[in-house]
Amino acid sequence: MPRPNEIPPDDARALVAEVGAGELITVGTDGFPTATRLPLLWEGDRVRLHMAIANPHWRTIADDSPALLVVTGAEAYLSPSFYASKREHGRVVPTWNYSAVQLRGRITVHQDAGWLGEQVADLTDLNESERDEPWAVSDAPAEFIAQQLRAIVGIEMVVASFTGKAKLSQNRSDADRAGVVEGLLTTGRSRDAEVAHRMR
User: Fold this and answer.
1) Is the whole-model pTM more than 0.85?
2) Which of 6, 92, 154, 180 could lock 110 by a disulfide, CB 3.0 to 4.6 Å apart?
3) How far is it, in rounded angstroms, from Cα 186 to Cα 114?
């Protein structure tokens, strides 16, 4: 990976926390990959997730099997028309800007009600923390929550390694980067505006 594109570890953790979900990818005994998008918590060297028990994905996961978790931030198509260099020499092509973190490790499935209850409460508290009147798991009837917990399974990943990449036109001239930011801000798409913000 080109050095300017590397996301430092603390920034990678911040991006994962900001996005709050990722694609869990595993390979079953049939040799085919399976992916499920799941909400997550990354603390230390562990990522905690959960999925619906009705999702067959978890049944293909053997304890301590390898997995890949991909978390993507905002991304956008870049038109060659954005570049100042298009007007100078025309030697430009379309591309795609993005930020992403890939985590690799080994995973375990959890069906213990205590583990699941803690996972759901922690995830809820995190996502409700900025609300004026945050909702808590304890706001719902205990028997209802117990019923809901029986409908999910937990997944825990012990992270062995992770990499983060931000492809944000670092290889372009100042004039081209300025043109990309301006161009992205004119599309009216919120994801494009987010990429422009990250580029700045």
Assistant:
1) yes
2) 154
3) 49
